[in-house]
Amino acid sequence: MLVMPIAALLDRWLSEPSRYHPLIGFGRLAARTEQAIYGPQQGVTANARRLRGAASVAILLLPALTLATLIENMPYLGALLSIAGLYLAVGGQSLSEHAISVQQALLAGQLDQGRLAIARMVSRDTQTLDAEQIAAATAESVLENGCDAVFGALFWYLLAGLPGVVVYRLANTLDAMWGYRNTRYRDFGWAAARLDDALNYIPARLTALSYALCGHTPAALRAWRAQGANWKSPNAGPVMAAGAGALQIELGGAASYHGELTQRPPLGFGRRAEVRDIERAIRLVQRALLLWLALSVFGGISLA
């Protein structure tokens, strides 16, 4: 019952390893797997490309799942390695640090530095964003990645231990690499994207509920109910809508991706996001994390 709190404390104290993070090595392995299996650019049908993508996911995840299962079942050492694995999977402190670097640049009036800092967090075009747009993009990223970087990993640890955490985090990484709807990855990345959607379905809704409980509850629930399904992502929508409602701000709206302006539906109610809302979003995620940790410890004591 103490694995989650210890892992969370390690993340808070140490943040992510600056070098030799296992996910960096996994990303390199995934890139080599893609290079070996993707096949020629032309002459491969959409279904065949999907099969190649699904095979790549299986080749990468099944050995990791097997190894994590063996590690977890090791006497004594298994518990320590489970703590280490969950610590490496949880990235809440790194998320906060990235967001704070954006906030500091904006408060110092360094707009160009703010654009560079937010470019490390989002996939949209950032070269022409003003201070308000940068603040909104940062708040959106903090709220959305609260699920991917924190609560999803905790949920899968609670449900399936270290194997669940490993599969979840690696699937999330593959989706980040291959889950694009462009010419190259629309079919090859289909399996990675669908797996990530499935693994995040329940965690996303628990994250949305956590934001609602730790912020302005009526506005969060109303935004989730009215706006969550309007977003292009079935999981990011509820999370971001509830988060925006909990903070009583409005997110969403127009954004440029790869030079193309996209009109996104609004999320939340109230004023547009401001620089100070970056820290408010971070604190909302932190309060929700404390709620999860408290419930995990209390639940463990009750079951003991």
TrEMBL record:
Membrane-topology descriptor: Multi-pass membrane protein
Keywords: Cell membrane, Cobalamin biosynthesis, Membrane, Transmembrane, Transmembrane helix
The keyword Protease belongs to this UniProt entry's keyword annotation: no
This protein's pathway: Cofactor biosynthesis; adenosylcobalamin biosynthesis
GO terms under cellular component: plasma membrane
Pfam family, one: CobD_Cbib
Molecular function as annotated in GO: ABC-type vitamin B12 transporter activity; threonine-phosphate decarboxylase activity
UniProt-listed InterPro entries: Cobalamin_biosynth_CobD/CbiB
One example of a Gene Ontology biological process annotation: cobalamin biosynthetic process
Transmembrane segments: 51-71, 149-171, 284-303
Cellular localisation: Cell membrane
Major localization listed first in the record, in broad terms: membrane
Function of the molecule: Converts cobyric acid to cobinamide by the addition of aminopropanol on the F carboxylic group.
Family according to the record: Belongs to the CobD/CbiB family.
Full protein name: Cobalamin biosynthesis protein CobD
Organism, as annotated: Candidatus Methylospira mobilis
Taxonomic lineage from the root: Bacteria, Pseudomonadati, Pseudomonadota, Gammaproteobacteria, Methylococcales
Gene of this entry: cobD
